[in-house]
Fold:
Amino acid sequence: MSLVLEHINLTIGAEHMIRDVSLELPRGTMNVLLGPTLAGKTTLMRLMAGLDRPTSGRLLLDGKDITGVPVKRRSIAMVYQQFVNYPTLSVYENIASPLRVAGLKKAEIDQRVQQAAKLLRLEKMLGRTPLQLSGGQQQRTAIARALVKRADLVLLDEPLANLDYKLREELREELPRIFAESGAILVYATTEPTEALLLGGNTTSLWEGRVSQSGPTAMVYRRPRNIDAARNFSDPPLNELAVEKRGAVIVLSDGRQFPAIGPLLGLPNGAYRIGFRVDDVTIGTTSPSALSFPGQVAVTEINGSESFVHVNVGLGTWVCLVRGVHLWEPGVTTEVHVDASRIFVFDAAGQIASLPAANQSAIAESA
Amino acid sequence: MAQITLDGIAHAYGTPRNEQDYALKRLDHVWEQGMAYALLGPSGCGKTTLLNIISGLVIPSEGRLLFDGTDVTRLPTERRNIAQVFQFPVIYDTMTVAENLAFPLRNRRLPKRDIELRVAEIAEMLDLTRDLNRRARGLTADAKQKISLGRGLVRADVSAVLFDEPLTVIDPALKWELRSKLKAVHRALDLLMIYVTHDQVEALTFADRVVVMNEGRAVQIGTPADLFDRPEHTFVGYFIGSPGMNLLPATVAGSTAIVAGHELRLAGAYPPLAAGGAVQVGIRPDYAMLSRSGGVPVQVRRIDDLGRRRLAHVNLGPHSFIATVPPGMTLNGSEASIELSPAHMHVYVDDRRVESLVEGRAA
Amino acid sequence: MNGKPFDNRAWWFVVPVLAFVLFSSLVPMMTVVNYSVQDSMGQNSFFWNGAGWFESLFDPTTDIGGRFAGALARNLFFSLVVLAIEIPLGIAVSLCIPRRGWQVGAVLVMIALPMLIPWNVVGTIWQIFARADIGLFGAAINGIGIPFNDTQDPLSAWSTIVIMDVWHWTSMVALLCYAGLKAIPDAFYQAARIDGARRWAVFVNIELPKLRKVLIIAVLLRFMESFMIYTEPTVVTGGGPGEATSFLSLDLVKIALGQVDLGNAAAMSLVYNLITLTLCWMFFTFTTHADQKGDV
Structure:
């Protein structure tokens, strides 16, 4: 039982918005669409909802072709980034509105609204209007409305993007629980890798209207198939280094040479891109390794539990993770050490050439 | 050279009947020359009221505001010698970038040569040199906000530069660049800067000292490391860090805390705590490690895999608790335990941190 | 957008609009076009006249051509004068309207009052108001020693009509500008105060640029209405003295209804219509084009 997209394309004028997207979105799990702004997440959701019609391709719901079925005849609920509520109606009436449209009995409506309100902790707010609520409560109201409808397909388009980070933390934890028992197909669009990881389930990585990878979230994170998927799933951004492998050495674009260690050793000669995340490097002048790069600190971003030191290494700026709160002063010279056993290597076409060995076992462990 | 003193400043919109009616509760503080401060807190915590008092948009109902010892409490904005950068870019549409930057200087009739030099210097710092002769209205949002920043920074004689959530409209991917620019500018210009935000990343990244505010009160003023390692108030523990600090109701006797029947060792001995106060111990998830055995027994509810770290949501008796899962650790079933680092455990009475008798001395 | 659900039955919704447009504008318009290319000897018999009416209309040596050219010039001059006064005055008034407090409502109602009065009533008020013998305005002007008589002196007649129009319509410009000013976020004023800008600099660098779009609409509306002015001069001066305030619309009515010269009137009304359209289009494209150029 699932929603299946078969070779979906969408072109508007000369612009190719969606390119040959084939996906299966099962029930009972969170289906995350991960990608930067304009990657095509919203466009794809509009196609799933039937608000737009694909230029080519088919949509199958539980095996039935629904490609041309207009949106009003589908069973869909959607939550947007903006808090969309009826401003003059009470929270109760807002949540009840899809049920009133459906013509349900009063008692049934009341029961469903109370149930949803309880789940979203809105019981005390039912008499208020949306404008008397905080941002978090407004979005809870919109989510409750999507929930009571008991739609086949629930589309959540960056629902937490406009909330303060503490509220986001709370709601992010609750959302999978709230929708777990609804039996709907859940699709959740986000730009944030952390959010995708917390939601779990399956992740589809979208890049410029294309699927760069799809699969269980932890697998897409640890085993990117190409550089787009790796970039998509890295926050702070993926650190990258272009190298040329020549026998036992790798040569950088500025002529510097390093021994080809770790996974690089087994690869044929040629041009590669090495990618590594913030936690695959260490920073400091002590404990040098085979892949050490001198650089200058540009800024330290601190998110409360982690510090991200941006270091200019001459070939670009890399971001290094330091756990806890540690201020590295801008301008300080230091060294960045890349852990060769944890790097991703991509070939000239951007396809994965080598994965860190540890990432294989990590999948088994989290599965 | 400037120093701003808040002397018993408090503010209520309307007539206050009790403490609750104050949007900003009594605050004494000295903002030092050359420092970067952040006012951090959730919406409605009073941080904007405080900023408006400094900029002169709000006259406080109590207390005095001193700039270098001179009382400016009732002085209008334009006579306070401050600069401000707003949430949304404020630019003069009809002017070029250079004219925008020069505007505050021209209004003060500086010599033309000085204006040119200063504009060139600021433009260089903010990477605006190439755009100097372009019309400002055609630029992107982040370029416009850089112009706003530039106009705030162009006057060398200001007492303070105030920032009101200036990165709201900036594309998330470009934020770190502007953050590093701001930081660099602060180092170069030696100005007093005050930055208002609800975002901990922004506050901790920008400021030398962060003022954490909640419900009209400044609950802690400290360095980013202080806020993380020694939160003086449970709100700071909760608000700083993702996820926030674990707080557990406890009874404390000497150097031992008892939580849900388990004895936890503390880093130092505590004096007898006032009867009737709500006693809690707090520890950040970063300093609580999950282990297979040894330590306090817990039941694991679930494990969140965040990519670069894993967090275990566990039950410690009746309390829920978040601990870090060490790399490579695997679990059998839901039984596990947690090891807590005494040096990072804090004791709170009625939400305020209590010092141990000899701080830091492990029992 | 491509790929939207498509249903041909939706076209039925367009039918009522089509019917309405047909009866309200297309049919009457085509009747006028029909008259403009035919001549009549009365008794409802028409014969083809080709472009004859148009030729004489554009030839200033003919009687009708002369009248047309004169009226057109008066119209353009009138619009120009009225715009030159009402736009700056409207902006000035809008800047003086309070921004908050109970005074806002009171001031706005008072300012809006002239606009609520029907055109012919405005005309009647000013016809009496401006009379040299008993009118408060006319008599007062005479009283301070300036000869004034709007039925005999062209300058007096013109001044009366211009002042009347300014009185009637400046409030519209002021209200539009007021709405535009209210839309400027407070941060801009705060920033200007902090930047040490003087009042004039605030006006030139913040208020005027932000009012640009509103002003384009104000100019368009005021131009169209002033160019088509009819009722008020008809009531106040009747187009006189002589031909002094005889605008295109007044002349047109005289020819069509007074002289029942349908061919000339039809040709004239078509050309009048086209001129109005062209001028508005030119103004609109010019300003919006300039707008886009500024964004590059």
In short: Chain A touches chain B at residues 36-37, 134-135, 164-166, 169, 191, 193-194, 197-198, 200, 218, 221, 233, 236-237, 277-279, 298-305, 310, 321, 323-327, 330-331, 365-366 (CB under 8 Å).
